[in-house]
Amino acid sequence: MKQDRSTAVIGLHWGDEGKGKIVDLLTADHDLVVRYNGGANAGHTVKIGTDRYALHLLPSGVLSPGTLSVIGNGVVVDPEQVLAEIDTLATQGVNALEQLRISDRAHVVMPWHQPLDAAYEWALSHAGDQATQQALGTTGRGIGPAYADRATRSTAVRMGDLLDPDHLQALVSRIAPLKKRVFESICNGHTLDRIDVKSAFDVDRIVTRYAACGQRLTSCITDTTYLLHDQVAADRRILFEGANACLLDVDHGTFPYVTSSNCSALGITAGTGLPAAAIGNVIGVVKAYCTRVGSGPFPTEETGAVGNTIRERGHEYGTTTGRPRRCGWLDLVATRYAAMLTGATGLAITLLDVLEALDEINVCVGYRLDDRGDLTDRFIPDAHRLARIQPVYETLPGFGGPVSTARSADSLPQGARDYLDFIEQFVGVPIRIVSVGPERTETLRV
Ligand code: GDP
Ligand code: IMO
Ligand code: MG
Asked: Considering the entire predicted model, what is its pTM?
């Protein structure tokens, strides 16, 4: 197995690092692009010239003709969302269906999963006093409940099940009434906004809708495990597209404020059926500052003027939900932890241009543990403990010149080059790509 022919692109923060742009860029050097985790909670933006594409489930490789796009078994798939993306792309002149393959073992996000996601969020945000409220601020796409059913097994539906309407009818007839009871018991008589309860549990309607999805996707739904092994055997180059990001990893992120899958490279093997040896280079995508959407600790968050400047300059509003993203300084302690966790062999630094307006830039190089005042340079992947630390900053000078117009590393202003050197030194992984704008061309290879 030739390791170096595959590449994984993985976010090293809490998502939205610009993975879509980097995947699109690297697709040219690969034969297929594979999603292995997450679902439509992801929102990956690709800008090509004046065209802007927002992808949630389709791998960003669909924008490159001739590239095979694979949704692996580790992804939770909302088939109506897949078809909506395919249809939107068709209006933009992209034929995504032809080059798409979806694992028959990928779990389906069923119509009851979004209502259950909303119900848990509602119930938890109304339980107890503020200090004990535990709503996660999910994307509301039904991700947690869908992955929970994968673990429960008897209440799960997989993509292959959509191809057999009688079998689907039997599954939905068994599961929908159970889910309705759970939903009603959580809501306890309360009506949730924007949730269409009737269509969420209506067996006949669901079977009709989802069997129709299966029919439209028949040519795509297949055993992607064998397909991927065949591709590796044929020496094809694979690009793994991480969704969400390392600090949202269910096992190694800021639990419980995480998503429900393994977002780091650790998820690739289980989410595709390929062995670890199939993973070659790992590009860790690092925003020049940090952002987070939803709840959970964020040590370097800036809630004042600096945060607002970053949000407006970086257009930091969610691709999936439109929520304003929380913004703050680059946390190098967290970045180094995520690079270690995912085995990053190179870094892509994105949105560097956003910081060019600042006179001084802080970077977090340690945490002060507030109970004893001790210092540590190790990340704390536990929300409760992480919420109690104070960041220790090193202050670096501003860039001293424009960054967005640079088209080579040499033409970056000295301040920007010093900033990149600082990151590289601290994280201990070489920077391979620097992004200075959303478009394909606004990229420097280092
Ligand atoms: P992803 O989820 O990691 O793919 O990231 P998103 O697409 O959710 O968010 C990143 C946003 O930043 C998108 O709107 C991109 O178009 C944009 N973007 C990517 N790289 C750059 C960059 O270098 N500079 C600027 N200004 N925007 C960028
Ligand atoms: P991309 O791929 C940013 C966050 C949600 C929430 C938590 C749990 O675009 O980087 P979920 O709906 O997964 O149960 O929500 O995880 N989250 C993301 N934040 N970008 C993402 O994906 C995210 N995927 C999940 O905001 O805090
Ligand atoms: Mg995103």
From this structure: 0.97
